[in-house]
Design a protein that fits this description.
It is a single chain. Helix content is about 60%, strand content about 10%. By secondary structure, the chain is of the alpha+beta class. The protein is elongated.
Length: about 625
């Protein structure tokens, strides 16, 4: 078989085109938020894998072409008599050996690497898309994505049809994998375009479902690629064998024949069993179709029977009726699906919602500052804030901002099943969003230190009332049983420093208490001394006033005596002065008549003598 060189050019062109479009989807995904971001990422992943498959097909075609040219060159110029080697393996040329090594070593390694990478990327996107909450987008963004999807669909479809005609019409087998991935990308982009339009029509969950569908398809194709390689190891290789990295499932739809004909060729190629297209059609018409109709009828009959468990209530929705009907626990007969649908709502069991801080990143050391602007802490910590307790003046008040690691547990019951069913597509997720919003707002308006000192039961009651009011405003039909703050602590990186601050504050409180105790004691002692001084002053005042009264009375009597006997009063006063003030002084009296005579006056009162004592 002569291998044409055009296959390599077409495959390389396809690889470059797929890679360019994949980069465009990655760039669009980086600028988007919400579910469409992961939809764009997964589309880019499929295009990237398609580029790898196209590049692998180009390399395979180049090696096969060079080996074929080398073999034809040897057959043309080599004579049977001049052949030096009897072993055909030893006689093979360098390009043939390179092709053989490519089949044995390089191709399996690349094939397994591509499959593992595709599956890993699909799992990564599926996990993130499941945890992502849809957000409000700008009006023009989904239309931009839709135009990109449909433009890529048109290019991939035209290119895939061209490769299909060249591969199956002109027998260019290395274009068959390129044709398969091109038509697959056309289907993916066509579906993704409608997903973008659904997002524009306010149906974001369709985009999430399409994202998961793309991830599942990627995982299945990766598994099929590995299984095909394993089966190919135990199958005799033919000269016209198709490449092992070609998807047999995609070939059923890309080959320009009927699907039944493609199925028969696939079964004959894989298992060596020859089937006729007419036999398969007759089997489908006589057995499969009646059996399928019977199964559909049976499922329709079974869908009329609905059993509601004791802890549940059913919400019945029927075509043509705007109102819903609540079904109590028990067995019920309804119209078949989809004319009537029954949604079961758990009403007598508590639902649990846990809001907690994520584990902090281990790459942050203790010396690095823990700031709320850090990207790694945006979803791990809560921000608390409030007026500082020391700032009583509103004009000079400052905000006390802290980071906190908190855990909140909410337990709720479904009070109104009809509202619970019709409020939102994912009521529990929406309620979780409301709890996170109210909890964050509550922490943001309260100081961290004040919250740690507050009674937990009072704190839980405030949060329960706040969350219940927000849920009632959205008409979710739930009753919040309790909201419990399990933990409220500083971030682990600053816990030692925070403990040191708490210890310093505790020492400050102890010193302040000691100072207040000393002030109370000093104030009591001062009041006691003041009372004693006041009492002494009052006593002295009373004494002085009384003495003044007594002296006044004595002076009045003396004045009367002086007015009556002035000379005698003077002599008596002088004698009293001598007796009072000169009692212990020796007195000498000198007379004018006899200056030499000394008279001693004994003014002391003599004690009684023996004769003057009274007799008993």
């Amino acid at each position: 078989m002569i291998i044409e060189k055009d296959q390599e050019k077409t495959a390389i062109a396809a690889a470059i085109a797929f890679l360019a479009v994949a980069i465009a989807f990655y760039l669009f995904g980086g600028a988007a938020v919400g579910v469409p971001m992961w939809l764009l990422y997964q589309t880019g992943n499929l295009l990237l894998v398609s580029a790898a498959v196209a590049l692998l097909s180009a390399a395979h075609a180049w090696l096969a072409r060079t080996a074929d040219e080398e073999e034809r060159h040897q057959e043309q110029f080599a004579a049977d008599s001049n052949q030096l080697f009897d072993n055909t393996v030893d006689a093979a040329g360098r390009n043939r050996v390179a092709l053989r090594q490519f089949h044995r070593v390089v191709l399996p390694v690349i094939l397994v690497s591509i499959s593992c990478g595709e599956a890993a990327l699909a799992v990564w996107v599926a996990r993130h898309a499941s945890n992502e909450t849809p957000t409000i987008m700008a009006a023009g963004e989904p239309l931009t994505w839709a135009s990109l999807y449909f433009a890529t669909f048109l290019v991939c479809f035209v290119f895939g049809k061209y490769c299909a005609g060249a591969a199956f019409g002109n027998n260019r087998m290395f274009l068959r994998p390129v044709c398969n991935v091109a038509l697959l990308n056309a289907l993916v982009c066509f579906t993704g375009g409608f997903a973008a339009l659904a997002w524009y029509w306010t149906l974001p969950f369709y985009a999430a479902a399409v994202t998961k569908l793309f991830c599942g398809a990627a995982i299945l194709l990766a598994a099929e690629r590995v299984v095909t390689w394993v089966i190919d190891l135990y199958r005799p290789r033919k000269a016209t064998a198709v490449p092992v990295y070609e998807s047999r499932f995609l070939t059923l739809f890309s080959q320009p024949h009927g699907v039944l004909n493609n199925v028969t060729e696939l079964v004959e190629y894989q298992f060596g069993i020859t089937l006729s297209e007419g036999g398969i059609a007759s089997l489908l018409r006589r057995v499969v179709v009646p059996f399928g109709i019977l199964q559909v009828f049976t499922l329709a009959c079974l869908s009329c029977i609905t059993y509601i468990q004791p802890h549940e209530n059913g919400v019945l929705e029927r075509w043509g009726e705007r109102s819903l009907r609540i079904l109590p626990p028990g067995l019920h007969i309804t119209a078949p699906w989809p004319a009537a649908t029954v949604q079961r709502v758990t009403t007598s069991r508590l639902g649990h919602i846990t809001i907690q801080s994520g584990s902090p990143p281990e790459t942050i050391t203790g010396e690095a500052p823990v700031l709320w602007q850090n990207k790694q802490f945006e979803t791990n910590l809560f921000l608390t804030g409030g007026q500082r307790e020391s700032d009583s003046d509103a004009a000079s008040a400052t905000a006390a901002v802290h980071l906190a690691a908190a855990t909140l547990t909410i337990q709720f019951l479904v009070a109104d099943p009809e509202r619970f069913q019709t409020a939102n597509a994912t009521v529990v997720g929406f309620l979780t969003h409301i709890c996170e919003r109210e909890f964050s707002q509550f922490l943001l308006t309260n100081d961290f230190a004040a919250l740690r000192r507050q009674d937990r039961r009072q704190l839980d009651g405030i949060l329960r009332t706040t969350i219940q009011a927000a849920a009632d405003q959205e008409e979710l039909g739930v009753s919040i049983v309790c909201a419990t703050v399990e933990s409220l602590r500083p971030p682990p990186q600053v816990a030692p420093i925070y403990q040191a601050v708490i210890d310093a504050q505790e020492r400050q409180r102890r010193k302040h208490a000691a100072a207040e105790t000393f002030a109370v004691q000093a104030r009591a002692e001062a009041e006691q001394r003041a009372n004693r001084i006041v009492r002494q002053a009052e006593i002295e005042t009373a004494y002085i006033v009384r003495m003044a009264e007594v002296e006044t009375q004595n002076f009045e009597k003396q004045l009367q005596v002086f007015n009556t006997y002035p000379e005698l009063y003077k002599v008596r006063t002088a004698m009293d002065s001598l007796e009072t003030w000169l009692r212990d002084v020796r007195k000498i009296v000198a007379t004018t008549e006899n200056a030499h005579e000394v008279i001693n006056l004994e003014l002391k009162e003599s004690g009684p003598d023996l004769l003057s004592l009274p007799l008993q």
